């Protein structure tokens, strides 16, 4: 039997991907054992942080199997189709349980864009997008179940993402003026990677401030500091 490692992740899919990269193997070249299973939980309890441990053992004769990093960056058409089907199966059941809620799925450049529609759909956005971000994470985990390469999944409700982007851009420029005026750095509240990128991009060509991120996920923060 070949090399064995134990890896952790928020989901079994994430842990398996980490292990495959470390072993430099494809999924078919290893035996996989879930040490801590992803038990069924309610919609809200699934939002709680958790760690899944997975044991990966390289099969005999596969130790020197060639591995290319690029295989783990670009999903195949099959991965995208599987991800889309997984998401659609979940959303059919989910929307049937919620009155006046519909969904649309659009695939572009091997990314899956999901939009929730309906008169009460905005209730699923949450405070500063907490719920929509959590739902996007859930959809991504569900969609990428059993896929070799992670497919990017984006969720939008009531055009929230565009509105949030404009709000963050305005915030960035306002804080730029504040830091320029008093010279003190500002540490923003924790944001997800999508929102942090908006701040960084908006201020990347600023003459007065520089930005960087500190902390660990999911409480990583943007710092705006005078040059």
Would you kindly provide a written description of the structure presented here, covering whatever features stand out?
- β8 and β9 form a beta hairpin.
- The protein has 3 domains: 4-71, no CATH class; 77-158, K homology (KH) domain (GMP Synthetase, Chain A, domain 3, 2-Layer Sandwich), CATH 3.30.300; 162-226, 2-Layer Sandwich (Ribosomal Protein S8, Chain: A, domain 1), CATH 3.30.1370.
- 35% of the residues lie in helices and 23% in strands.
- It contains 5 helices and 9 strands, in the order βαββαββαβαβαββ.
- α2 crosses α3.
- The relative contact order is 0.10.
- It is α+β, with helices and mostly antiparallel strands and 227 residues long.
Our count of helices gives 5
Order of helices and strands: EHEEHEEHEHEHEE
Low-confidence stretches: 42-47, 64-72
Principal-axis shape: globular
Highest-level CATH class of the largest domain: Alpha Beta
CATH homology superfamily name of the largest domain: K homology (KH) domain
CATH topology of the largest domain: GMP Synthetase, Chain A, domain 3
Strand segment count: 9
The fraction of residues in strands falls at: 15-25%
| Class of secondary structure makeup | alpha+beta
CA-CA gap between termini: 56 Å
Q: Helical percent range?
A: 25-40%
Quickly list its features:
three-stranded antiparallel β-sheet, 227 residues, single chain, 3 domains, Ribosomal Protein S8, Chain: A, domain 1, GMP Synthetase, Chain A, domain 3, alpha+beta
